[in-house]
Each structure stands twice: as C-alpha cells, then as structure tokens.
Amino acid sequence: MRMRYLTTAQDIGELGFIKSLCEANGIVCVFQDEHVSSLYPGVLDLCCQVMVDESDWERAKTLISRLRLPIREVAPSP
To answer: What residue stretches are annotated with the DUF2007 domain (predicted)?
Structure first.
C-alpha cells in the first residue's frame, strides 16, 4: 500500500470529520502527527497530515474538496 498526502487538518474537530468521512466511504487513512497539536495547542504548523492509499486519492480528494466549500448565507424567505 503506497500512501499519498491528502490534506492537513486544521484542528482536532476537522481531523475527526475527515476521518469519519473517509471511513464512511471505505477509504483507509493514516494520520501523521495526530497527537502533536494537543501538546502545543494553537500551533498550526504542527497540525495532523492525512494520508490515503494512492488508489483512493482521487476519490478522497473529491470528498475533502466538498467538505471545504465556502458557506453561503441564504436570505430568509419573506
């Protein structure tokens, strides 16, 4: 299994969401530096890197890109 870098989680919440999203779609993922950010809270350079199998990379990238779509506000109906 050859692993490929997918993304870097910005915080523990995003990491949990990415992990859940990958597992729900049958994508095996590995986390580098998963616990380092808890040792040094607020240091963004130490965030966790998410790695996936090279054969799942394209599908995982699509899922993650949907996760990070900008949120737009919708005006309430009159």
So the answer is: 3-67
